[in-house]
Design brief:
This protein is an all-beta fold. It contains no helices and 11 strands.
């Protein structure tokens, strides 16, 4: 399976963006999906994860009151809704997938990665 993250862009502080993660070569519905972000020189940071059904999610403390992860199994797509964006949210955002049981919060627990989409939040 190959992942494609999209929806990034330039937004002013306080604005919103919705990132999408789609799959080709296999159905995304078979995989637990995670979102991570990375800034230059830093390790990938966990943002959120969602289980197969979409009924179980976990979001990092730093964004929990502003970001929501969800998935549409009919559309075979996972999303990251980002509201009240801050300049410190500026990063390349990646979606990742794992076919093992359970949510995971570290990037090395995910097997498949998309190419990333850049989110830039201006002050």
């Amino acid at each position: 399976v190959q992942l494609q993250a999209s929806g990034g862009g330039l937004v002013q502080a306080g604005g919103s963006l919705r990132l999408s993660c789609t799959a080709s070569g296999d159905t995304l519905n078979r995989y637990i999906v995670g979102w991570f972000r990375q800034t230059p020189g830093k390790e990938k940071e966990f943002v959120a994860a969602i289980n197969l059904s979409g009924g179980g999610t976990y979001t990092a403390d730093s964004v929990r009151d502003r970001f929501t992860i969800f998935r549409d199994t009919a559309e075979n797509t996972a999303y990251l809704q980002m509201n009240s964006l801050k300049p410190e949210d500026t990063a390349v955002y990646y979606c990742a997938a794992r076919d093992r049981y359970g949510l995971a919060f570290h990037h090395n627990e995910y097997d498949i990665w998309g190419q990333g989409t850049l989110v830039t939040v201006s002050s």
